[in-house]
Amino acid sequence: MPVQRIPFSIPPLNEQSTTASAAGVLTGGFRFNGNPNVKFSVPAQPRMLDTSEMYLTGQIVFMDPSNAPLSLSDGEANFADNNGANLTKAANTNISPWGGCENVIERVFVQTKKSSVELMTHNNYPMYVNLVNGYRNNQEDYLRSPLTRFLGSGTDADFINRHSVIQPNATASTAGAMTNIDNFNDQNFGQFFSFKIDTSLLNNRKMLHLGDDHLGGLLITLELANPDGVLFQRFRKMDFAQQTEADIRNSFYVLRNLRLEGRYVVPTPQELSAYQSPVGLNERINLINDVNSSTNSNTYTPNLGAVKGFVNLFLDDDQTNNIAQSQSNFRVPLGLESYTQDKNNIRAPEDFVINVQPNQVESTADNSSLASVNPINLVSPIDAMGDAEVRQRFQRALLDGKLADHTSASLKITNDVMIEDQDATAAGADGVGNNTKCDLMGIGLDYTHALGNASNFKNQDYTLIIKSLVNTGNTHVAADRRSKTELQQTYIRNAAVLDQSSLTKNM
After folding, report:
1. Which of 42, 49, 261, 318 is most buried, most CB within 10 Å of its CB?
2. 413/407 Cα distance (integer angstroms)
3. Could you give all domains of the chain from N- to C-terminal order, each with its CATH number?
4. SS3 46
5. Residue from 490, 463, 448 nearest 340 by CA
6. pTM: predicted TM-score of the whole model, two decimal places
7. What φ, ψ does residue 265 adopt, rounded to 5°?
8. What DSSP string describes 358-422?
């Protein structure tokens, strides 16, 4: 057993405090346009770093283009008026229901301080983390602390999310609407958050050795994400005359009072002598491609020796860094009919086609010989998607061959998203294009079989061939999506080993 556990709270190397004027204009802090990189230095020392208990903490403040916080006075009214349609800017601003403020991190990379060797890099951090959060937590989980400490709202986003971005109404002139907030300079101002940095090295079960003969300390850099990808508006389309759309363009976020908090462990001499330098890592590599047509083939050469699985996410071509849409809404390719996954042009390990039956191009929801029915007009459009096999194989690819014990992913949220896609172009009803529902779907391939297996992709090709209604203009799918291309975000999950003494990584 360790001799001692020592808590730490490390401020950023480049910390910039926030200040506020009497008029409520907030300056300073970490923001995408201004101070977009957060750097933490974990010093070299003869101790271990317990990453299982390490968190990023701080406060997030959501801002309008005038550099003023979105305050309670801006969003308190009109939550219920006209079915919530007459929303002010504060109430109209949303963040991802799955990852909350974790979305502010775009990229994470970690270096050793003794040689500046880059130990790991995770690009496109928020999409993968959103996906994992949604699959590992159900509706009840999202309503509990500590999960809600990262401001995730889950499937209740349409009820909760609008409150997550609104700050207490505190100004120097009013002395604040909340008794514990005096003004925007108050140390308690902003939404408090806490979350683990979900990366292969910083969320590891094995303690890391910070001694000079091992890692020699760490330098952790967080690159902040574009606010147009973090935030999105409540309504994407305003067709009804009584609706008023609060313009949230150029809204942004500011991070303040950031800390990296956790515990050092002082090992016994026996533990030090028995310590093994290699540490296993669950790595992921992000690759990007396009889906341009109804029959689409994309090929990658990962050049990795131990691939655990492929996780493919799909976004409309205008969905990234677009404040009018949620960047965390993961849907299968529009009107998916079938797909195959190949290794070196051979279907493996699945030697068959994965079919969606029924699908949205077929004449009826039950695939019978009845008169033609457009699935877009069904009360439950998910009835036109026989995608049980797609769902199961996607979960296994993400969760090491296992199925989730409890999850937010469901037929219901897929159905809700499909309805919102259709309502976005409808007219005559309040609340059109609600834009708070997000799906958790994709296409995956698992090599672990829940046994820890992996597949060698050194100089080997992976190919995903998709048949769908993407960019076809087909009237069986939502009008605002039927002529768009899509972006394929592929995460290659692979096992790696880092030797903390030599600082070499075996992929």
Report:
1. 49
2. 11
3. 4-274 (3.90.249), 278-506 (2.60.120.730)
4. coil
5. 463
6. 0.91
7. -120, 125
8. S-TTSSSTT--SSSP--GGGSSSGGGG---HHHHHHHHHHHTTT---SS-S--HHHHHHHHHHHH
